[in-house]
Amino acid sequence: MKPRSTEQQDNLKRLSATVIGLGRFGRFWAEMLSTRCDVVGTSRRRITDLPSQVRQVELADALKAEIVFLTVSISALPDVLHRIAPDIRPDATVIDTCSVKVFPAAEMERILPESVDIVACHPMFGPDSAGERTDRLPVITWPIRDRYGRYEAVRSLFTELNMRVEEMSPDDHDREAAFSQGVTHLVGRTLKEMELQPSPIATLGYTRLLQVMEQTCNDPLQLFQDLQQYNPYTREMRARFAGALEAARALLLDGDRKAQ
Amino acid sequence: MKPRSTEQQDNLKRLSATVIGLGRFGRFWAEMLSTRCDVVGTSRRRITDLPSQVRQVELADALKAEIVFLTVSISALPDVLHRIAPDIRPDATVIDTCSVKVFPAAEMERILPESVDIVACHPMFGPDSAGERTDRLPVITWPIRDRYGRYEAVRSLFTELNMRVEEMSPDDHDREAAFSQGVTHLVGRTLKEMELQPSPIATLGYTRLLQVMEQTCNDPLQLFQDLQQYNPYTREMRARFAGALEAARALLLDGDRKAQ
């Protein structure tokens, strides 16, 4: 992505943003943002491979930003919210990036001070897939509280960052994601458990399955566990997948007898 | 693919080939061959959408060719072999194209006259995937009987047709294919049984899963059934897939308790 000219940048208010959590996704996200915002990041660990435009700061300094992105695992979110709640700037807008939305939205409302604005957000891409997609990168947003009016600015920022912004309620998101991202990770982890290997006689379809396996299993195991556990629709998805596998195998019963 | 010049063609003996079975794959295969060979096709049905370079003829005429490709379903193969065995040219080379190899190789040896040469062959692509692959199209070959020395000519023909020829025994092929093509079709049919749909929030991985579903389910159901039933290794593959699904779900048990 080409940086805009200084003149163009001056026409926009340059946002200051904090990224809390500098794991693989957090570093990737901070780097994207840094092409359009002033970005600092914070983590309990000292991070050595930060993107060049991103500075690591102490939590207290990180909480001075007007926009605070949370790029921590779903299961870590409540603890992180409890840690930031006492010191967060009262007029901040907090935006999570978790792969489920109902649970984080409820936790942000429950734990953050009433004065703080909240946006639920899910970038449907990560460090592995972003570079391979040829279309704009889909991101889901939903305003939980927006009294300081930064929701539209954030959506514009995402659009400038080559994203396609879709508005979707947390509940709609979780139902849709269970039967798309959720089933993809279930298949990827299943293939990994089978220890599938590249083959000299790979069909195109098999090559795609291997890509799914590699990409989903390159994410932390915690992400698989969290997006299966904290999405209220994935239990049904997993049951339907197991039932569908039995239905597919049942297509074989007659043939089974013939072939033996 | 550009046709060679007449001069280049004259330097090669132009093979005459028959394609027995003019279903979707048979028509596709006949069309590929027709850029380098004189091709006739035969089918019990009258085919209206034949490729322009391919003539449909009666079985008796089809059996005059020196090379006879069988592009029928795996389960139909024994019947077809019994029908052609009495009238086939005694020095023909018969080449199957089935998605399993142990069973067709044994049936060809058992049913065809002793004088006839036999090649086991599996093109690891079809009408849907051939155009999407950017690499050379993989094809597996194995000489069962080659007294008329056409095996090398056939491999050269495949190379000219932009294929990557791999030699592999029927048993090795079936083991390898069960855990690549076989698992791919199992996943594709399972996803179809779930009735997965395109999603506005599709991740790259989910888009790939949908491609696998569409491509495998665009093949006849018979192909799924046959390649699961007539490959001696797919039963083990299906059991390992089901076990791996349980193992992937077991990764969730702790989280299950936490999330409830």
Characterize this entry briefly.
Two copies of one chain form a homodimer. Chain A is built from eleven helices and eight strands.
Account of the protein in words:
The structure is a homodimer of 260-residue chains. With 260 residues, chain A is of the alpha/beta class. Chain A has 2 domains: 6-168, NAD(P)-binding Rossmann-like Domain (Rossmann fold), CATH 3.40.50; 173-249, no CATH class. Chain A has helices at 6-11, 24-33, 59-62, 77-84, 102-111, 151-160, 170-193, 204-218, 221-229, 234-250, 253-259, and strands at 16-20, 38-42, 55-56, 67-70, 93-96, 117-123, 137-145, 163-167. In chain A, helix 4 (77-84) packs parallel to helix 5. The longest helix of chain A is centred in the last third of the chain and has 24 residues, at 170-193. At the A-B interface, helix 7, helix 8, helix 9, helix 10 and helix 11 of A face helix 7, helix 8, helix 9, helix 10 and helix 11 of B.
Question: Topology of this structure?
Answer:
Two copies of one chain form a homodimer.
Chain A: H1 6-11, E1 16-20, H2 24-33, E2 38-42, E3 55-56, H3 59-62, E4 67-70, H4 77-84, E5 93-96, H5 102-111, E6 117-123, E7 137-145, H6 151-160, E8 163-167, H7 170-193, H8 204-218, H9 221-229, H10 234-250, H11 253-259
Parallel strand pairs in A: 1-2, 1-4, 2-3, 4-5, 5-6, 7-8
Antiparallel strand pairs in A: 6-7
